[in-house]
Amino acid sequence: MTIFTHLGQAAGSKWPEPLYRRLLDDARDHPILLNAARVEPELGSPARGGLPSTFARRTAGGWAISGRKRFVTGALGLTHFLVWARTDETPQRVGTFVVPSQRPGIKVIENWKSLGMRASGSHDVEFLDVEVPLEDVLDLVDVSVGTQDNRAHAAASVALTAIYLGAAEAAQEAFIRFGHERIPANLGAPIAKTERFISAAGEIDLLVGGARQILFNALDHSLDEPEALIRARLLAARNIRDAVQLAVRTLGNPGLFLSTPPRKTLLFPSSDGPHVTDGARRQKSRRIPSWEKRHTMHLSAPGKQTTQESCLMPFPEGEHDEIHHHRSRRCRRQPCRAV
User: Fold this and answer.
1) Beta strand pairing status for 123-133 and 80-87?
2) What domains appear along the chain, each with residue ranges and CATH number?
3) How far is CA 221 from CA 204, 208, 232, in A?
4) pLDDT tens column, 169-182
5) Is the distance from CB of 239 to CB of 305 less than 8 angstroms?
6) Smallest Cα–Cα separation from 266: which of 191, 170, 179?
7) Whole-angstrom Cα distance, residue 220 to residue 339?
8) Is there a contact between 164 and 272 (Cβ–Cβ < 8 Å)?
9) Number of Cβ atoms within 10 Å of the Cβ of 273
10) Are 84 and 137 in contact (CB under 8 A)?
11) What does R_g of the chain's alpha carbons equal in angstroms?
12) Which of 57, 168, 262, 297 is the most exposed place for a label (fewest CB within 10 A)?
């Protein structure tokens, strides 16, 4: 995220020159880590429009920032928060305020408990009358033109997808290695030589290679076309997710062991959705293909009543028995039903 900030400055010079120069001078002495703080509990993703409830109140010395942000990646390690807020002026303006993380009034709420990408530490951050200088603000404009332009972030989102591509390639490599090392006694040969494994390996290679080609083609030919970059990012992300899920599904139970590399990389690409423009709304509205079903898992524990939980793991017909969702949860054939 810090790199994206510098790339944006190189392309558009949005930072005030004295502020950016001060930042670079500080970077000579110690690491400077920056990230945006935009998402809010009430607003949700700024990708869908709307204005922040975080306020920048005018003071004698500059601004006092108050509000709460969600999903601030690297919150505990950042040196500066780039806080999206609106002013208390009339008429109001909205902009990004550069807030040093050591200022009084900042509280990191360690509530990041995601299934995947746990190391990103994307905790909530609360700001209470945090003072910043008057000039330490970017893109301060009228609220009528201050909503997020998703196209402006298209190139950055493609770069993020490249990280998930690396995770998928790691899963593919681990899948092949496991296939050659696993020699069941009743088979007398590595499972990599079975028709089913060979077929799955070919499909995984097709999906991962396709994702790589989509991304690189977009970077080579569509850097000036935001819509094309967004399409490439979405299609590549779907390929990546499907490839890793297929690797885990083919391995069966070993694929979900904590020590198995494909399992380690499964939840990383599966967490890719939040970085897709308007990902949550698109996921809700997408049509479910004929081969993809939603099943109900019946979960039970000693001394507790059976509960139900929706399972969104897609799988082709005939492969139901090979899917095991979590270490302590088993999807049973009989209770499950397509919905």
Assistant:
1) unpaired
2) 2-148 (2.40.110.10), 151-286 (1.20.140.10), 287-339 (no CATH)
3) 26, 20, 11
4) 988 998 999 999 99
5) no
6) 170
7) 42
8) yes
9) 13
10) no
11) 23
12) 57
